[in-house]
Amino acid sequence: MVWEERWHPLREEWVIIAAHRNDRPWTGETIAKERPAVPKHDPDCPLCPGNRRVSGAVNPPYQGVFVFDNDLPCVGPSAPETTPLNPPYRVRPARGKARVVCYTPRHDLTLAELDHQGVLALLTTWAEQYRELGALPDVHHVLMFENKGDVVGVSNPHPHCQIYATNFVFKTIENEVAICSRHWRERGKVLMEEIIAAEITDGRRLIVERDSAIAFVPHFARYAYETFVMPKGPHASLADLTPEELRDLALVLHEVLVRFDNLWKMSFPYVMALHQAPTDGLSHDGFHFHIEFHPPLRKPNLLKHLAGPEVGGGSFLSDTSPEAKAEELRALPSTHYKALGIEGPS
Questions:
Q1: Distance separating alpha carbons of residues 55 and 156, to the nearest angstrom
Q2: Strand ranges in 175-299 using DSSP code E only, listed in sequence order
Q3: pLDDT for 223-258, tens place per residue?
Q4: Cis peptide leading into 88, omega within 30 of 0?
Q5: Which of 107, 160, 275, 284 is catalytic?
Q6: Which terminus in the chain has less CB density within 10 A, N or C?
Q7: What's the average model confidence in pLDDT over 78-85?
């Protein structure tokens, strides 16, 4: 079993090699479509209550949010030692913890279809997991993310996300930390607070706003419906929010998810990532926790393909206007189309 991290000398980042995950159970499809008549409980789903997982463990009859250690983790506390390599190559054990978070026992729901209390319960769980995993001595970063939809290659449609608690900081967060810290030193201001102020002043890209939370398509959006969701206060992580801020954030997050689904009357695919400060014990002045959504579709069944400029050059080319996309989302109902009795695509 290959279970290690390999250094990419040209990008100065770690690449996790976890070849055993190629054989993980796959219950997803290969094309984007609305699944008709999804059961509340799927006897073949390894994430449903009471079912057996690939490890042989049987899920308890859970009623709310359920967290467990990933049966096929990309990192682990007992990753084997590696053999030193000749420069410029470097290798080390892929150590840490990987967990799965099931949002609900219902196989037929998505995060957008939960009620506000269900979303709030999930945010509370995320905060608890950040505190617990971030306190481990070898964990420098806690990455939480959801891959939703067949088009992004999700292996199981049961509503869930993953947590990678690693012995390194993922490159995107490492870059954000450095940029935010530099901005703080040079200007004495939190960069994300200035972004929020600019978005509120402009107003055209706002989607939802509450007293202490906000969502918008950023001025610099790379994907058509790229959306940032965050507290207005400059907190380093979800674990730092007050109960009132958590409630506002849950309301804003839920409204965004509902509007995503209402856009095309379908379960809207995306990659969602929580951008939280590293847990490496260092100072991260100026860092502002936020949630980013990267939806891969420009239109129903039309992907934003990552091609030459993105993969080859490292810079995105946007085919749409952030102002127009935000206006589309803002104009949609904040009640889910299924609750309104509207049929989705067949």
A1: 16
A2: 206-209, 213-216, 227-231, 270-275, 290-294, 297-299
A3: 999 999 999 999 999 999 999 999 999 999 999 999
A4: yes
A5: 160
A6: C
A7: 87
The structure tokens listed for 324 are: 């127009």
Q: Concatenate the DSSP letters of all residues of 1-16 into one string.
A: --EEEEEETTTTEEEE
Got the DSSP string for 19-33?
A: GGGGGS-----SS--
Instruction: Report the C-alpha gap between 54 and 14 in whole angstroms.
Output: 28
3-state secondary structure 80-106: CCCCCCCCCCCEEECCEEEEEEECCCC
- Runs of H (alpha helix) within 135-202: 171-187, 191-202
Does residue 160 have an active-site annotation? yes
pLDDT score recorded for residue 27: 52
Whole-number Cα distances in Å, 153 to 18, 146, 253, 259, 269: 17, 11, 23, 22, 10
pTM above the 0.85 mark?
yes
Question: Which residues are bridge partners to 291 per DSSP?
Answer: 229, 274
